[in-house]
Amino acid sequence: MKSEVRAVRPPGTPAPDAFQAFFDALDEPAALCDAALRVAAVNPALRRFCAERGIAVEVVEQALTDATAPEDGHSHEMDVVLQDGTSLVLTLSRKADTVAVRARVDTEVISGRLVVAERALLEQARTEGVLLDLGRSVAEVGGEEELVAAVARGVKELFPGRSFCIRIVDARTGGLTSLYAEGRLKEGAHEPLVLFQRSVEKTNLPLSSLPRGRVSISEEVPLLFHGSTRAVSAPLVASGQLFGAINMEYPDGLDADVAHDERVLLQLASQVAVAVKNAKLIDELTFVRKYLEELLEKANALILVVNRDKQVVVFNQALSALTGLSKDQVLGRDLSSLVASSEQLRLAPVLAAAMRGESVNNFETRLLTRDGGEVRVSFATSSMLTQPGEVEGVIAIGQDVTVVKELEKRIIHAEKLASIGQLAASVVHEINNPMTAVATYADALLQRSRMTPGANPADQEKLRKILESSHRILRFTRDLVSYARPAQDRPEQVALNAVVDMAVGFCEHVVSQARVTVHREYAGDVPPLAAVRANLVQVFVNLITNACHAMAPGGEVHLSTAQEGQEAVVRVRDTGTGIEPRNLSRIFEPFFTTKPEGRGTGLGLSICQGIVENHGGRLTVESALGQGTTFTVRLPLALG
What we know:
This protein has 640 residues and is an alpha+beta fold. The chain has helices spanning 16-25, 44-52, 57-65, 107-140, 144-158, 197-202, 258-298, 317-323, 327-330, 344-355, 402-451, 457-484, 496-506, 508-514, 533-549, 581-584, 604-614; strands at 30-33, 39-42, 75-81, 87-95, 98-105, 163-169, 176-182, 193-196, 215-218, 228-238, 241-251, 302-307, 312-315, 360-368, 374-385, 391-400, 492-494, 517-521, 529-531, 556-564, 567-574, 618-624, 628-636. A hairpin with a 4-residue loop joins strand 12 and strand 13. The longest helix has 50 residues, at 402-451. The protein is rod-shaped and about 200 Å long. Its EC number is 2.7.13.3. GO terms for molecular function: ATP binding; phosphorelay sensor kinase activity. It comes from Corallococcus llansteffanensis. InterPro entries: GAF, GAF-like_dom_sf, HATPase_C_sf, HATPase_dom, His_kinase_dom, HisK_dim/P_dom, HisK_dim/P_sf, PAS.
């Protein structure tokens, strides 16, 4: 009878499957081997352990074949150094013919490597933080000088203990525009700019773009500072253009990773180069903008710019001087509020046409002034277009035509006066003929009466008055024709007192109508002048007439002549109200007058000043409110 051998499991013990499940569920990496350390089973935790470290399970199996199994009931550890330097610790425990293997990594080795990696990560984070802060700083700077200062702070923070030099150059000429050095520079070391060949290649800087004679390339980095032993440098390159370089040097005894420093410096230089380029572009744009603003502001023309909402955005100095309105009073206002109300309807279609992109030439309008007056201007408009071609605003360039319009009026008035003068000459001729007869007959009758015995003296007196009045009329008409006749501009020897007297004679009607008194204080020893008689008479007629107009009835006009040195001096003084100080400096301006409408053109004093200056003299004025005004004419004497 054949017997059968069976394994008898003691009551209450787990089945083999339960041991297998327990082995697979262990979190600790483990394997089971026989007494020869041949692997019989590997749990999932060990497989994950190997996979996480990039090693194969067979590597562990191979390491076990070279090991020695511990004694029964004992255990020991063995170290396995992998190809990547990782130290693997295997703990071997034996029970009978079964050896349990547990795996772990040497924590001390790992910790050391983690510390090194952590330090590297912290340094990288610090570097990136400094570069980020530097990026923010250079983005906020307002100019090249501030930019260089910000970069210097960043370099000192990134590379403590090093000497460094930051040089910024003009991309076109290579000329040095900014320099910052931390350390003791060698004399003349900052120029010319020498670039490190390897750094130039890394930045892809085209050599053809480098200015000749200002930049050179070298296989070695030149030492710029005293006491340095090593150096690295990085060019500032952006868009294929050179904007400068950063040189950094190491003093003797400083331990540093030069290769790492060079990489960081190149990264920093790339960032700085873009900032320098932008700063220079901003500087150029700022210069162009300021230049254009100054051009518009200081231009010798009236320049006005309005936006699409018809609000004034440019109002240059010429317009401010013309209207008396400051820029603060005008900018932002609607253009229609600056023109006379009667002109607003005419202005509307012109603005509408300009907003459609149509140009308008020689548009005349009237602008309001600060004192409530008006000035006439002529504008030519042009539309300002955006990039897509839409009208953004309108620029108007013009000129003041107030004087031109006034001159046109004066020319028309002068033509009228010329016609009246011709008529007056004819009238004077017609008057002279009968007045000559009257004078002749009156003289004959007077002579006959004087020769007739018993003639009535009263009749003789009447005849004498008739004769004097006739001669006075004839003399006045003769002088009037002489005064009205165009001057020949040929100086002649004239007696100053006689010229003033002739002017008083012409003003008799004005003096009488104003009911004022004329006082004459002539010096008898004033030598003759070389002058155009009619022009000088015109000067004194105007001054006497103005004096009469400036006084109330009962006023006095004082005329005096004198010789002062080599000048003949005539003073015309009135007892009128005087001239306000704000008007005193303007009374010789053409068309400026304080007289009511219809009583003055504002040209008289300007013409008088021109006549006196043409004679080599001066016309001045002194006045005080309530005390009258004195005009002084100084003329050079014709001394032999």
